[in-house]
Description:
By secondary structure, the protein is mainly β. 9% of the residues lie in helices and 43% in strands. The strands form 4 sheets. Strands 1-3-4-9-6-5 form a 6-stranded antiparallel β-barrel. Strands 11-12-14-18-16-15 form a 6-stranded antiparallel barrel. The longest helix has 10 residues.
Amino acid sequence: MKILFLTITASLLIALGATAQRIEDPVSHIDWKKVVLANNAEFNAGKLDWGSGFLIRFNNDTIAITARDFTGTTYTRGEMLLVKDFAREMKYWNMYIPDQPSQYVALDTLVMPERIERKVSILMFSANYLSFSLKHKNPNIIPLEPDTRKIPNRDTVFIVGYDRDHNLRIVEGFVELVPNEKYAELEIRIRTNVYLGDPGFAGAPIVDRQGKAIGLTNRSYYLYKNKKGRIISDKKPVEGGYYEFFVNGTTMRSVLGKGDK
């Protein structure tokens, strides 16, 4: 149950660490340490003790959201845990405040599993998120309000997660879609100034300026380009070469549908 994050050289990591920063932004009034939660789960196949998740309000209740990469997807190596097998294979899944492990919520069953996984003809559709109901709630943990609108290209957004030193970071980025696309609907691609390959950013919330959840983080990657903007391998750096950093995520529109909240 491991997610593959692309690796980069040690020198690049050092450079990125120097440029990463806590951003003073419009969402800083939220107590994010009570929002972005750590995973602690056990399955028949082993334990999960890394990555993030968070809560959102839904239909006058609260549900938990996290990345499906933790249990395998069609894009990750290893066996994917199918929706139909969760009840049998999952022993427990808790999400807790990282510096207060006694403050936690306990996840129950998958919410709207038909949105997460379904067969289309002979093909299997597998979304990149998991949504759970709660069997143990906690008033000290703050749920986010979801926003299911289409997210315009070039919109400023924030990714809130934990770095390798367990520091909470709010990283600013902007939506960068492929040419001719005006809105992010099911999937969202965000360009950032830093590489967010730290495990604490997997499953972390993506929020707008008002602190509403517009999506969740799936995976991070980078591109190395020459001075003409062509993507090339970084195994042999070239003069004028530079990196671009991205986060792929799933929108709340994909998780909840077009109008549900």
